[in-house]
Amino acid sequence: IRFDPTGTVTILAGTKDQGQGHDTMYKQLLSDKLGIDTDDVRLVDGDTDKVSYGLGTFGSRSAIIGGSALHLAADKIIEKGTKIAAQVLEAAEADIAFEDGQFKIAGTDRSIDVQEIAKIAYNPKQMPKGIEPGFAEIGTFSLEQTTFPNGCHGVEVEIDEDTGNTELIRYYVVDDVGNVINPLMLKGQIYGGVAQGVGQALMEDIAFDADSGQLLSGSFMDYTMPRADDFCAMKVESNPVVTEANPLGVKGAGEAGCVGALPAVMSAVTDALSVYGIDYIEMPATAERVWQAIQDAKAA
Predict the structure, then answer these.
(1) pLDDT along the chain (300 residues), means of 10
(2) What's the rounded Cα separation, in Å, for the pair 46 and 42?
(3) How far is residue 194's CA from residue 188's CA, in Å, rounded to a whole number?
(4) Contact, 14 vs 46, CB < 8 A?
(5) Any residues with CB less than 8 A from the CB of 147 and at least 6 apart, and which?
(6) Distance (Å, rounded) from C-alpha 133 to C-alpha 262?
(7) For residue 73, which of 4, 143, 140, 142 has the smallest C-alpha distance?
(8) HSE, side-chain direction, 13 A CA sphere, residue 208
């Protein structure tokens, strides 16, 4: 976390946003912790000239690892800010409390906000003795205990006997990803994960020519990607159980939709086909594959 002399803030993160909404998440976390308007915060990631280290984004780790590191860096900002505020307000450090972006003398109405402290921090003449000028801190976090997000997916499908086409009728999800930082973005991640899982379960098939081995589905003109009209409305609910494995109490959400969609959809397809005595069908359960399975079952 790096304040500049105007009081605005830059977050430099060793994770990488690939569309998950890190910019929003990190700003929300910092705003909640330091009481700063998100408009006064900017995020820098993916620039190795500016971000000294970091392993990027994988395994739904950004909120857990990056968010916790941000939380720890903010604690250091508050600690240093308390020392500066004590001098500015002419009070003992022990009497300074930080709340809603304000350093306050306990039991009085005297206070100074964190952005004003940042401005003072860049003036060596106003700094307490032994405290270096500037207002920037680094936080790192290593996970000692794995988090386990969990949930339940419920799916209803209908299969057209004449074409083998599978239609999603209803889709329900209840997920536990610990504390939810941004409910709207969480739903977006789950929607996207479900779309990926449904695509893998029903549509996305690698096809080769049987004689030559030539790839036949080498572009998105030939390889089926799921589209909006392949889905029904999804109902997504959260059942958060806070984890103690990190200071934010969060668990990963990125893979949740896909992990649940694959077995749920394939179980629904198998259940629908059970009336023909079919108890297994290989993924992806394309219309052609389902139709052929039905024909083989009827012939048998």
Answers:
(1) 95 90 95 96 90 79 93 97 94 94 93 95 89 94 90 97 97 96 94 96 95 95 92 96 95 92 98 96 96 96
(2) 14
(3) 10
(4) no
(5) 64, 178, 243, 245, 246, 250, 251, 252
(6) 54
(7) 140
(8) 5
